[in-house]
Amino acid sequence: MNDAAERKLALSHLWVAFIAFILACFMGEYQVLERSGLISALDSPSVYFASVSTHGVLMAFVLTTFFIMGFGYYIAATSLKQPVWNKPLAWGAFWLALFGVVLAAIPLLTGKASVLYTFYPPIVAHAAFYIGATLLVVGSWVWCVIMLVMFVQWKKAKPGQPVPLAMFATAMNALLWLWTSAGVALEVLFQLIPLSLGWIDTVDPGLARTLFAWTLHPIVYFWLIPAYTAFYVFVPKQAGGFLFSDEMARLAFIVLAVFALPIGFHHLYMDPEQAKGWKLLHGIGTFVVALPTLVTGFTVIASLEIAGRLRGGKGLFGWIGSLPWTNTMVLAVILSLLMLIFGGFGGIVNASYAMNAMIHNTAWVPGHFHLIFAGTTVIMYFAIAYYLWPMLVKKPLFSESMALVQLWTWFIGMSILTTPWHVLGLLGQPRRISSVVYNNLLTLSWKPYELMMILGGLILLGSACLFIYNLAKTQLSPASEAFDRQIEFAEPIHAVESLPEWLNDFKPWNKVIAVLMAISFGYPILQFFFMNTSGSSAWGF
Amino acid sequence: MQIEPLKQKYAQLLRDFYAQLRAIHIDQLERKWITISLIVIGLFVGIITIDALFHGVNPPSKVETVDSASLHLNKEFAEDNLGVQVDDKGNVTVRMVAGRYSFFPKHITVPAETTLTFRWVSMDVLHGVHIPMTNMSTMIVPGYVAEITTTFPKPGEYPMLCNEYCGLGHNHMWSNISVIAKENWTAPAKSSVKGGSNNE
């Protein structure tokens, strides 16, 4: 199959993602430096909050969305062995989303949208910020439609056959994102855009926070699923072994998607506008969704063990040493799992209902999500890029050893950055402050940790530059005619011949999600229309 | 509407699902791991649920509305009623207003080892407050009263910090709370201007 058009489509998306990423990395390092108070000339809340808003938007919305779209197009084309459906539409979505990013960037960079990437009404930003963000999401919805159409077309052409696992996971993510983004879309379309344009006078911040919480948990699985996809479909093959179980992988993706949605109130534990019964219900669901991650950890480690033993590893732990540690995909998955273990531990603390009071809105929280998103998830984005780049540009990777150094430094930098960040949270430091001006002895204990974070950020920035340099050099190097690498998907130990329909399709799960969402969000949203609430007028920042 | 056929349909659906679930290939080791995972999750959920239902350990969740735009006209949160008050039964209530960029009153003194009910409201945007090293933490959402009950075990000077981005002056939004030994604490004199029926 001549997939030049698909490769160009994927590369364009991935470049937008990684350019956003490297810009945001520079902002991140500036932020830890500014926050520490080390250089007093840097001290400026207006620059800091503009930067932190832009950093959040670039990392959480632009890097992720464009990476997932580009990755999805290439996975769909290669795993189904068919061209991307309706490429003009896909390009339209790309340009629409990119236009949205530029539109949002103008108020962000000029300090007219310093509302952080989580919005926080009744503070309002310039309308262009919300409209730009909306266009980015609309572009991603088009991607979802293309993925689901390709999924359905393939199934129609090959009735009864199992959909390739890589495509199953990608299409599941598309469905998950449609459900996920509905919450924030309602908030932006009916509250924030009308408020910022002056069409309405007031909004209810309680309702806005509830709708945002709808999106806030499953969005992290939208970001994580490409990493899990790589765990299942790339890692076993790259390690030299087999996938432990194809069926369990499908089950894990299904449980992940179904239970990611009805549990968003763990972001609202400390909020006054929702009652404790609903919070407890969402809290229990939050623990249930740990199950697919525990299953994933088991399957990935079991697959690695098979590979290690096939390569001659002996004894209880001997197989770990015999793994190909110099393979970027294998190294990345080991480091990713290490960060997942610690990040998961922190996540269980956050999820623990009333215990959340100890860390809510403290520095612990950004420490947690940097470890689990920028660590666990993004290190797999790197590994995927290193794996796909030679296929996308038809040239060998510029430097494998540089890639290995980059992965190690990302892991070390992330450990040095996030460990003190967690400690600062336990010492009571609030997140989202640009400098420490509290006249209190407690703040003295924060200082050494803030200095450590500067070092961690610096290592991460260096690592990020190596990553971009390696990809750019690969693409710019002279073409070599002979080079032709094909994507390889891992084989399961037990090949799946046939699957029950609920492991091969989403229709029944769509219904389950609808029921669970009606239960967990129905009354909590409707209550705002029954209660005697008084809205808040718009405030600047 | 016929209930019986529907019931049969769903029972059949569940039976089929279960039979198919049994038929898919799941390794013995995977079964064991899933069982262990479920036990661990069950333990966590069990502890949290028992604490919530029987010991009353819950986050602040009293869904109570207030008009944040007119707090000065509100009986409870008018300026004279803010701060620490003790009612006839000896219950201590602390009423606080959060507004850019401080907590009002600026300084309060409360007794240690005493149950305190904090009632927080915002007069403008979203705020949050926590007192480090204690479990006094709540979001303060405009339009809602955030009520939280807690006890401070140790006397000392504690900062109260705004932990939610509320604007470019957010860093400067903080105040102090003095927790003093129970025996040294005296209830503040009741304000002469009280809200209530005779004031209307």
From TrEMBL, chain A:
The species this protein belongs to is: Methylobacter tundripaludum
State any single GO MF term.
Answer: heme binding
Q: Do the record's keywords include Transport? A: yes
**What high-level taxonomic lineage is stated for the organism?**
Bacteria, Pseudomonadati, Pseudomonadota, Gammaproteobacteria, Methylococcales
Q: Which InterPro entries match?
A: Ba3-like_Oxidase_I, Cyt_c_oxase-like_su1_dom, Cyt_c_oxase-like_su1_sf, Cyt_C_Oxase_1
- Protein name, UniProt field: Cytochrome c oxidase subunit 1
A Gene Ontology biological process term = aerobic respiration
Residue intervals of the Cytochrome oxidase subunit I profile domain: 1-517
Q: Which SUPFAM superfamilies match?
A: Cytochrome c oxidase subunit I-like (SSF81442)
Which controlled-vocabulary keywords does the entry list?
A: Electron transport, Membrane, Respiratory chain, Transmembrane, Transmembrane helix, Transport
Pfam families documented for this protein: COX1
Q: Which GO terms describe its cellular component?
A: membrane
Please name the CDD domains in this protein's record. Answer: ba3-like_Oxidase_I
Stretches that traverse the bilayer: 12-33, 53-76, 88-109, 129-154, 175-200, 212-235, 247-269, 281-307, 328-349, 369-389, 401-423, 451-472, 512-531
TrEMBL record, chain B:
**Short name of any one Pfam family annotated for the protein:** COX2
Residue stretches spanning the membrane: 33-54
Give the range the annotation lists for the signal sequence: none
- Which InterPro entries does this chain map to? CcO_II-like_C, Copper_CuA, Cupredoxin, NosZ/Cyto_c_oxidase_sub2
Q: Which GO terms describe its molecular function?
A: copper ion binding; cytochrome-c oxidase activity
Task: List, alphabetically, the GO terms of the cellular component aspect.
Answer: cell envelope; membrane
Please state every residue range assigned to the domain named Cytochrome oxidase subunit II copper A binding.
89-191
Q: Which domain of life is it from?
A: Bacteria
**Record carries keyword Membrane:** yes
Q: Classify the main location.
A: other
Could you confirm whether the keyword RNA-binding appears in this record? no
Keywords assigned by UniProt, alphabetized: Copper, Membrane, Metal-binding, Transmembrane, Transmembrane helix
What is the annotated localization of this protein? Cell envelope
From the record, what ranges are coiled-coil? none
Family annotation (PANTHER family):
CYTOCHROME C OXIDASE SUBUNIT II, NITROUS-OXIDE REDUCTASE
Name of the protein in question: Cytochrome c oxidase subunit 2
Organism of provenance: Methylobacter tundripaludum
The uppermost taxa in this organism's lineage are: Bacteria, Pseudomonadati, Pseudomonadota, Gammaproteobacteria, Methylococcales
